[in-house]
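User: Okay, second chain of the day. Same drill as before: sequence in, structure tokens out.
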Amino acid sequence: MAGVGTIINGDRIVTGTISADKIVANTITSAQIASGTITANNIATGTITAAQIATGAITANKILITSMTDLIVDPGFRDTSFWNNVGTYNGPLGTNAGSAGPGWYNLHGNDINNAMGTTMYCMLWEGYKTDSGRQHLYSVRQYNMKGGAPYQFSAACRNGSNQTIYAYVRCYDMNNSTFPDIALSWPTTDTTKTTRYATFVAPANAVSYEIIIFNEAGSTWSGNCQVTDVQIIEQAGGTAIRDGAITTNKITVGTLNGDRLTAGTVDAVTIKAGTVMSNLVQIANTGFGAGFDLGAVAVAANNPAARINAGTTTIGPGLVLIGGTTTLANWKNGADSTEIRGGAIAANTISANKLTIGNRGISTSGLDFSYNRQDGNLYWSSGYIYWTDDQNVSQATPINAAGLVWQGGTNNYIYWNKGSNNLVGSKDNWGDINAGGGANSILICSWSNGTNFNVNYGMTTVDGDRITTNSITANKIRTTNLSSISADIGEVTAGVIRSSDNSASLNLNTKRLSFTTGNWRVVQGSALGPNTNMVLWFGPANIAVGSETIGNSRFALANDGKIYYGAAELAQAGASRQTVGYNQTIVKVLDPGASVSFDASIYAEAGGQGGTLYCQVIGGITGSSGTVVAQGPGTYAGPNEPGGDSVSGSFTNGTNIRQTFSFYVTRSSTTIGGTTRAAQTYLTM
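Assistant: Same drill. Structure tokens below.
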């Protein structure tokens, strides 16, 4: 009725029938709104701006910064339209086991063996995948990536299969060209849920991307794997952090500096026992310089004498108590504060090992020193040094034989370092050797170059320069062997000079010089052998001395200048053609690449069964069996008919060294019999 007001109770209003335009502005205050009844999903997006928020009304602990820049819209694989299988099975992400065949599927609330801590993941299972191929799971192409922006790509996987699992981010430009993939991988050892991370900067011209998840392939699939929490988060540089959101496990060890802590806020109760290292606690106003810490205090406490000696304060000898009323002052030798009175040392209380090595009464054996005039070096033989070690135990240290090249300077010293198996040589370093009163080194020999050396320990091989002229008389020499004596003795008349092993001899009477090595002997002289027709002979060592002939030699040089290899004369350079008979040998010495030409013929008398007769030239390196280097065309001879054959050709030294070659002519036939004779070969020198 007009003019009559009606009061309508709330239970008379149908839910949702009063819209905002029916409410008078500013008539609903906070008093009419129950606490907690307006949540974020009751506020239309974008309707609250900064103008609606009172200054200071929102504090930092009311702001929660979450992954607002995460680009993946379905990190838990709930939206089957967002993911597609490509591989053995092609189709959308399965909704349960078997719905995608051998492809990837999600589990809809079933966390197998509580392995993932979530039910939002995809899975590949051997119950349906039994092939060896690669099964991909592609996301829908996304266009929310900013070129040039930094991102973090991450995902979690539990790999219970026999193959490595991969997750890729693949970016595209506006022409649909791809960039290098950003990759994560989980080997077969990641049998528990493991999260991997990779940071990257999106290519400047990237406009879209996709996620690809796949197995390694190459072998028959077995087992299963689960993948979840796929994220691409832009790495923003903002500083707004929710109160309490950063806990100690979010802070990298060693990244929190002391200047970030308020002075006086860390007390002993806050520090975990056993976690503060002594070298991290600095002690101020110690007077020992900057950086003095508890670690240095501990070191100084272990060696207080070093700390005292480093300072200017000294401790008087009368203040160091030895025992009873005896102090160090009682041990002083009168006014000399650096010596101990002999009476203060008990008898038999100083053992050899308390002395420097040079005072321990060492002795030697061997160690013979000698100067070599040929090379100008000083040598010593092996031997032993006998001494007492620091534990008062007698030692016999073997010393190796060696030598010293003159080092220059005024004096060279050969010395021994305690316990070493080698002597050491150096120049002008007596101060170093005698350091500490010779505590660790002993001078064995001093050398002033040449034969001027003095041996303190060991023996000396006397050089002639060290003997006074005419001081040794003949009756002082007794020897059966003067091999060690060298001299310029002028003219000597002798018969035979022979080596001790009889392998070399010089017979001045027969003018014969002989050397034997192994199974061979070489003899040089005048009119050698029973035929007196050689000046050089080389052959077997078992040929009796004086019985050497050209025939029993390996090679020989005759008195007339001819050279023989065995019984065959070697052709001379520039000589005319040489002819030899059947089965006789011609020897040629050829340089690398040098050639020799030849003509050869052979004749067979009548007889035999008939057949083809061939003339063959056999040649090769002297001492070898040789090979056929040429063969004639062959001539047929009937039964009891004579026959012959001939051949011409050349031979070249194909080796890379000068060689001696031997050649001869022989025959080859199929069935012909009879004898051969009058074989001739012609060789051009």
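The mean pLDDT is 76.

User: Thanks, on to the next one.
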